[in-house]
Amino acid sequence: MTIVTMSKLRVIAPQNVRRPLLKELTKLGCVEIGSSADYLADQEWAGVLEKFNENSETDRYLSLLTAARELLDKYAAVKSGFLTGRRQITEQEFQNENIVKEACAAAEKINELGRQITAGYSEEGRLAAKRASLLPWQSLDVPLDYPSGKYYKVLFGVSPAAGVSPGELVEAAAAGGTADLRLISSDREQNYYLLLLHAGSFDEVMDVLKAKGFSLSSFKDLAGTAGENIRRLDCQLQEVAAQRRELIDKIKALAGQIAPIEQAIDKLTIENRREQLINTLAGTKQTLFIEGWVPKASENEVAKILENQGCAYQFDAPDKDEEPPVLLHNSKFVTPFSMVTELYALPTYNSGLDANPFMAFFFFIFFGLMMGDIGYGIMISLISWLILKKTRPAEGSVMKRLMQLGFLCGLSTIMWGAFFGGFFGDAVKAVSGQMFGREFIIKPILFDPMADPMTLFILSLAFGFIQIGMGMCLSAYKLIKQGQFLDAVFDVGFWLLILGGVPVCLLDLNAGLIMMAVGALGVLCTAGRAKAGFFGKLIGGLGSLYGITGYLSDILSYSRLLALSLATAVIAQVMNTMGTLGGPSVLGWLLFVLVFIVGHIFNVAINILGTYVHTSRLQYIEFFGKFYEPGGRPFSPLFNKTKYVEIIKEGK
Amino acid sequence: MEWILALFDGRSLAILGAALAMGLAGTGSAKGVGIAGEAAAGVLTEDPGKFGQTLLLQALPGTQGIYGMIIAFLIILKIGLIGGSPVELTTAQGFQFLFAALPIGIAGLTSGIAQGRASAACMGIIAKRPEELGKAMMYPALVETYAVLALLISFLMWLGITV
Predict the structure, then answer these.
(1) CATH number of the domain at B12-160, please?
(2) Which of A16, A111, A245, A566 is most buried, judging by how many CB atoms fall within 10 Å of its CB?
């Protein structure tokens, strides 16, 4: 239950085995390989080493497959059941090259269909635009290509709606007696006209009309009236839509290919990562240089692979000034809680202190205390358990640990619910009293926090006291481990005396007060030891003693345990009171069922959020603040990370 | 004169207290959730996949309203406005309820808004580094501490009032 000891691995491998070697190491999943960028930048090394820059095809295939998957998702989404896990396949199936080939062929087909659909959409847009431009002329029965004769012209034109009014324009055209302008239609932007005029007066009439904003429009390549053209376009639009339906049906017919495509995406993603890794490594023509980290316990397994591939290798303990990556190994109970710590920060490797085993206990207790309800606990545990069973999230994934955390916290909630006598708040009392006329209550094992909040207040502060004391002990442990024994006594020991005096006071006032006085005197004399001069030391000591307010506010901060516990209980009570307002009639029962379900789900949701946040806060700020050294780099080994399929061990 | 008497009636004052607890704290939460929601909408225009994470952050300043409701509910329960027979209150008792409602009312109003602003700022974390949701939730949560403490004090005051 600590930070795993790491060994530094250095390997010289023959170039020709680099792919199988990395493949084997990925499968093993416990080697982190670093980039050789530092060596390549180093003058001394740069002369010997060269960088690889290989382009592989996997990139292209991956984007092909991903695009196909998106298309399938869009047009042929398979309705998956509620809470389904990843498809399980064996290693042998996963490595099958034929499936990748099949998937790529299918993806090509799907992408081609997708391209045709896109082309259909742009064709549709073009046709629709054309149709829209013809709509104003729809009422005109003159063909748009009506020929002009020797003495007359048949023309079409528009004027802006904001300009000269159509009436004025018609009059102006008629003024010369050689032209006839007719308004066909108007819309918000333009007025549309048919212009008939004597060929000889064209220039004259046009000068007049142009000055008033009129301009000619022409219909290239269009024959027949606007109405005929619109009907033709409508037919074409229908055809395009029909074609699209056909294309989508074709994609739907390929829906079954989603399984091989997803499997191929997973396989190629892993290969692609490997190729990218190779490009960050350095080597010579014949050899490849690999540097990385391995958990000390896995050295033998790694060595076996390296020997099989004919590599030269060496395991070393990390140097003093090196920061190896951090991998935490904890018991089954503690592991889900490590997620909470990881959200804060990993401990540094050299601090050698993993907070999780200590934190897990408090997190478990505090979460349950704040929710404190048998019914809610059952809900939380049950839902977490169902999600775990149904979706089978990957080992060590955030989802898996989150749900395990939920399950454990639910158990704690049930436990505290039994202590406090809460089952969906006071549901039993409210229902039996309001609906059946005979009040019945669940007897709490400890006490009812609504009736006796002061007891819970003291219990909350006591928990705070214990956790902060433990944080200080851990800080002392760390100092002693680093050989700073005196610092541990001065900076932690005296403070523990002061704080420890408080509970001792309850047993024996004098003994407690003496303890506190000794502690305070110790802090006063030693806290300023790094300062120069007598007064410097004294002021340093006084300043440090003033830090008592910090400890006080830290402990008082745990009063939130009471406040949030009350919040859950009172909101539950609100829901029950509202639900039973209708009394024992049919309508009353209907109201009750509705309010009960909606209300309690709401309460659980809002309080899980609040409880999680405040439980975490107590760990992060009040507890970790005392001793924790954040800033470790997570250990990220090569492993077969899959998104869509789950690789199961053969023979299972 | 009658309206002055009605104003200083113990029951009226207690109801005023409940109204302030809910009204002020509710206003704080409404403003806070609104501010956070505006920022959340901005994040979502870039990446609709972050709906769940932004929703969590937006929900954080919503608790003040709930705390206000808790105190308001407890007050109206104790004076028998719902679920039971009405209780006769002296003017002094009415004022006591009114004052007991003030901590959560005032702290709920201000901390709700402040928490909303902190939540809105943390939306930027979700936009750029969604994996840091855990840290992003801590900043607004620190603001909430004061609403929790106010709830606690209001509750203890309510508990101490005998009717």
Answers:
(1) 1.20.120.610
(2) A566
